[in-house]
Design a protein that fits this description.
The chain is mainly alpha-helical. It contains 3 helices and no strands. Helix content is 53%, strand content 0%. The chain is elongated and about 70 Å long. The protein has a domain of 46 residues.
Length: 79
């Protein structure tokens, strides 16, 4: 009879623990997480500025990236 040694159980984190881990990592990186609402007219403005493709107007990740680009441009001009 062969006896297998016990193996370490895989680490399973709760959803709350994962959120806290991500929160702490963002803080270490100097980032904050903020959820915001954006108007259709603001999405159109991002498209008009060439920061967002028209076919991506409903893609939250593309909108986020366009907002990052807008903030980078706008805040860099202020320095």
């Amino acid at each position: 009879m062969t006896v297998n040694p016990p193996t370490a159980a895989p680490l399973i984190r709760s959803a709350a623990a994962e959120r806290m881990r991500a929160h702490r990592q963002r803080r270490r990186n100097g980032m904050r997480c903020a959820m915001l609402e954006i108007r259709d007219s603001e999405i159109s403005a991002l498209i008009g500025k060439g920061l967002l493709r028209a076919d991506a107007r409903n893609d939250p990740h593309a909108i986020r990236d366009a907002l990052y680009a807008h903030l980078d441009r706008t805040l860099d001009e202020m320095q």
